[in-house]
Write a structure and sequence with these properties.
463 residues, alpha/beta, Rossmann fold, 7-stranded mixed beta sheet, 4-stranded mixed beta sheet, 11 helices, 13 strands, 33% helix, binds 2-acetamido-2-deoxy-beta-D-glucopyranose, membrane, transferase, TBL_N, golgi apparatus, Protein ALTERED XYLOGLUCAN 4
């Protein structure tokens, strides 16, 4: 497999030399080319299975109290004066508030720093039953727990801790859907666990491998959360490597009706895509190939993936607005939130034990956002601005969950080798960094930094 990676990379570099890409872009592409193979494995072929919940409890009980007590003092000093941002509480009890034009964002969550926080997570691998196996880091024997004790402090304002009661209060008699790739699923599963700390969800529908389509109901609240698989938002014929099809064929002029056709039933949608645009893809529009990424073998002109990404996002949001028309009959305002790109943190060889070995967040300014990540983020933020302008007064509200910067500073929040249970059990030991094991430095441990995405989501829907 290592040889495959090398070949792939060499071919890739060759290809990019031909195109004489700017150096910055070239480096980014090369890095992503390397990541790609890792993706192929765990995004597509990595089997979901029931989580094993035994190990965590002990490890955490031994380590956590020490961490907590050490950090309590630090946190008190670091806590900002709390401006009590209960924005949106009025909207909960006052239906008229929902008719008003969207207020400017009261707090910019996109920029800030991670500060120590002694509060334990709202859930863990023992208390939440819906953690995907590959993200159940504690149960898989991840020995350090320090990565659990941080909170995001935006510059100049406060991000309130997640409140399951506030979220379920909003979600009462409503239906929220997550639409996108495995990062969308990661965020959905984080929300389910956060809410499960207050009320147990019931799985009422499941279809597709790895639960690509699922619906959960919180009976007590008649609240529904569903998950739709749609890694490009628009229509795709997914690659099938076993059948020799290495490219996704994406149709920019056709929508993905698996979720689009359900729009009428939704009160809120969280769209999260990006990573699949980085893997080999052919993009079609009006019967023509308009973009192609990593496709020398197909005789199509190589393009970057930013244009295709921009098109897919813009067209999707325009179609959502078109189908929404002049608003739902009941006058309820709908929210469409887009999670911005969530950066990966591979540092060395993706299949070496220490592919994302850090155990602490980066401090503010320590880690600049990469070129690709920054571009993909910007495209989403701009698409949301355009869509919001076009939908003004329609009862449809677009918002960006601008998590790229906060996620970029969390190299410590990925499963790494702990995507598998006890990855070092068969010898080698933890010190053996030469050991080749699969690493996931893309998705997020649960609990972990992805829970913060949902803190931002809560403030966004309440606004
Ligand atoms: C897991 O969460 C439950 C419920 O909140 C709690 O009682 C338990 O102590 C937690 N376990 C660990 C290891 O933190
Ligand atoms: C339950 O929630 C659904 C939305 O998921 C809504 O359409 C329905 O009206 C709700 N039922 C009641 C009794 O309010
Ligand atoms: C690409 O072009 C070459 C030369 O014209 C041709 O021989 C080859 O069959 C083409 N490959 C594909 C996949 O169309």
């Amino acid at each position: 497999l290592a040889a495959m990676v090398t070949n792939f990379l060499q071919k890739y570099q060759l290809q990019n030399h031909h195109l004489i890409l700017p150096k910055k872009q070239f480096v980014t592409y090369a890095v992503y080319a390397l990541i790609v193979l890792a993706f192929l494995h765990y995004l597509l072929f990595y089997p979901a299975s029931a989580s094993d919940k035994s190990v965590v409890a002990q490890v955490q009980q031994e380590v956590a109290p020490a961490v907590v007590s050490a950090r309590v003092g630090a946190r008190e000093q670091l806590l900002p004066p709390t401006p009590s941002p209960h924005q949106g509480d009025e909207a909960l009890g006052n239906p008229l508030a929902e008719e008003e034009a969207p207020a400017p964002p009261p707090c910019d969550y996109s920029d800030g720093e991670w500060v120590p926080d002694a509060r334990p997570p709202l859930y863990n691998g023992t208390s939440c039953g819906t953690i995907k196996d590959g993200q159940n880091c504690m149960s898989h024997g991840r020995p350090d727990t320090g990565y659990l004790y941080w909170r995001w402090r935006p510059r100049g304002c406060d991000l309130p801790a997640f409140s399951p009661d506030a979220f379920l209060g909003w979600l009462r008699n409503r239906h929220l859907a997550f639409v996108g790739d495995s990062l969308a699923r990661n965020q959905a599963e984080s929300l389910l666990c956060l809410l499960a700390s207050r009320s147990a969800p019931e799985l009422v529908y499941r279809d597709g491998e790895e639960g690509r389509f699922r619906r959960f109901v919180f009976r007590e609240f008649n609240a529904t959360v569903s998950v739709f698989w749609s890694p490009f938002l628009v229509k795709v014929a997914e690659k099938a490597e076993r059948a020799g099809v290495r490219h996704n064929n994406v149709f920019l002029d056709a929508f993905d009706e698996r979720w689009m056709s359900r729009l009428g039933a939704l009160d809120a949608a969280v769209l999260s895509v990006g990573h699949w645009f980085l893997i080999p893809g052919v993009y079609h529009d009006g019967g023509l190939v308009v973009a192609c990424h990593d496709c020398a073998d197909l005789n199509h002109t190589e393009t970057d993936f930013f244009g295709a990404f921009r098109d897919a996002v813009h067209r999707t949001l325009a179609e959502v607005t078109r189908r929404h028309g002049r608003g739902a009959a009941d006058g309820k305002k709908k929210v469409v939130a887009l999670t911005t790109f969530s950066p990966a943190h591979f540092e060395g060889d993706w299949d070496k034990a220490g592919a994302c070995p850090r155990q602490r967040p980066y401090s503010a300014g320590e880690k600049e956002m990469g070129y690709t990540e920054a571009e993909l983020r910007k495209i989403v933020v701009e698409a949301v601005r355009v869509a919001a302008d076009a939908a003004a007064g329609s009862g449809l509200r677009f918002a960006a969950l601008d998590v790229t910067a906060l996620a970029n500073l969390r190299p410590d929040g990925h499963p790494g080798p702990f995507m598998h249970k006890d990855p070092f059990a068969s010898g080698g030991g933890e010190g053996a960094v030469d050991r080749r094991v699969q690493n996931d430095c893309v998705h997020w441990c649960m609990p972990g930094p992805v829970d913060t995405f949902n803190e931002v989501l809560l403030q966004t829907i309440l606004r």
